[in-house]
Design goal:
414 residues; alpha+beta; BirA Bifunctional Protein, domain 2; Rossmann fold; 2 domains; eight-stranded mixed beta sheet; five-stranded mixed beta sheet; 15 helices; 37% helix; binds adenosine monophosphate
């Protein structure tokens, strides 16, 4: 029964098969966040457009071409959030969290929107889970953030994950380097892709991300910021590396690693799964010491990351098996409907998964349905008020005292 309506381009429906795997992933993430003291937060799906223009940066691909921007009835420009860090920093300032004991450790899960060319692993509405540690400049905070994403991917069993690590230095230190990089790019202008050439002075770092062959050749001989790190920047990066070494987390220094958002400073990292092909990054992030000040707050160091839920699910490959049910409450007689509902409710309150027939099937149909949904045991309520308990694995059936049903079912005996 196809209708003429379809999910919009670049979006998708989550059907139960994928919904189960998602729920498991989100539960694992919430566990990882909670165990390390990252508290759950949520911000609106849209914000004032200016928050992203200022926060993410005017020269970024996101702001230049990927935002879903619209006007509300009062003529204000709003944008569906393309990323989570600027909104969380906005909330941090709006709610005076800079007055709390620092750092403030926050975690989130939710939908994000970018008007990108859809392909496998790249959508216009996608979902991220992520964390932000705001108010700590210690390399410990960078290392902790990286370890938590590493642990989460490990716990989920994402195969073939590699960690790439880099550092962009502090904003002041970067200025000198950027001049050097621009000079290198100008010297090779003729060999660069047009897009890169046009943006040499706006966003030279993005040249490292180009797929264009000529540009790549130019970048192979470009100076890298990792080689130019000095003083506190170099010491900070060295300590992040030592902490990861001590934790046994393998990484590769990637001097060409730049991330597509303007706000990063010092540590940046990316977890990739090559098996995913073109869209191989499952998650990444870094330090953004200048962002909160950029948004009008006090100078506040911070570090965070976001991981793509769809990418992780793609990397995991297999769909989650149906969970089955602990119990199905069947009725041998129409008159037992209320009793069945009451028993299922009681079983659910006791922590079991239990269902009743909602489609008016006869007893035979109910047993067939119970089998189909993977019920391990079926309670059959008889017309005379008695009850039978059927083990769906062995097919064994025996009478049970009605008053003992819940105890019998929760007692673990099957
Ligand atoms: P970013 O916010 O760009 O640093 O991205 C963080 C993570 O979100 C990436 O590593 C991806 O896993 C995921 N991601 C970013 N953009 C998309 C997209 N358009 N579709 C699906 N996942 C995405």
């Amino acid at each position: 029964m196809a209708s003429k309506y379809q999910a919009p381009r670049g979006t998708f429906d989550v059907l139960p098969e994928q919904g189960r795997a998602r729920a498991r992933l989100e539960a694992a993430a919430r566990e990882v966040f909670a165990r390390a003291g990252y508290e759950p937060v949520a911000t609106p799906a849209f914000e004032d457009t200016d928050l992203f223009v200022r926060g993410v940066g005017r020269s970024t691909d996101i702001v230049r071409k990927e935002m879903f921007t619209f006007e509300d009835k009062g003529g204000r420009s709003l944008t569906l959030r393309p990323e989570g860090t600027a909104p969380i920093c906005r909330a941090y300032l709006e709610h005076g969290m800079h007055k709390l004991a620092q750092p403030v450790k926050l975690a989130y899960v939710g939908p994000f929107f970018r008007h990108e060319r859809p392909q496998a692993g790249r959508y216009r509405q996608f979902h991220q889970l992520g964390l932000e540690c705001i108010g700590a400049d210690s390399p410990l905070a960078d290392a902790e953030a990286i370890m938590l994403l590493s642990d989460l991917l490990g716990e989920l069993g994402v195969p073939g994950v590699e960690l790439r690590l880099g550092s962009l230095g502090s904003l002041e230190a970067r200025r000198g380097y950027l001049e050097e990089l621009k000079a290198h790019l100008h010297a090779h202008e003729g060999e660069l892709a047009r897009e890169v050439r046009e943006r040499i002075d706006v966003n030279p770092l993005r040249a490292f991300d180009s797929d264009d062959e000529g540009t790549r050749a130019v970048m192979a001989s470009a100076p890298t910021i990792v080689e130019r790190l000095e003083g506190e920047d170099a010491a900070h990066f060295a300590e992040v590396r030592e902490l990861l070494d001590a934790a046994g987390i393998a990484y590769e220094i990637d001097p060409a690693l730049v991330r597509g958002l303007d706000y990063y400073t010092r540590t940046i990292f990316s977890f990739v799964c090559e098996e995913l092909g073109a869209q191989s990054e499952v998650g990444g992030g870094g330090r953004y010491d200048g962002l909160i000040e950029q948004l009008g707050g006090p100078a506040t160091p911070a570090v965070g990351w976001a991981a793509g839920i769809e990418r992780i699910l793609l990397a995991l490959g297999e769909a989650e098996e149906p969970a089955g049910r602990d119990a199905f409450v069947a009725i041998a007689d129409e008159g037992q409907r209320r009793r069945a509902m009451a028993l299922a409710t009681e079983l659910r309150r006791a922590g079991l998964s239990a269902e009743v027939d909602l489609a008016g099937r006869g007893l035979k149909g109910q047993l067939k349905h119970a089998d189909r949904i993977g019920a391990r045991r079926v309670v059959i309520l008889e017309a005379d008020g008695s009850a039978q308990l059927r083990d769906m694995g062995s097919g064994e059936q025996r009478p049970v005292e009605s008053g003992n049903l819940v105890e019998e079912m929760t007692g673990g005996e099957s």
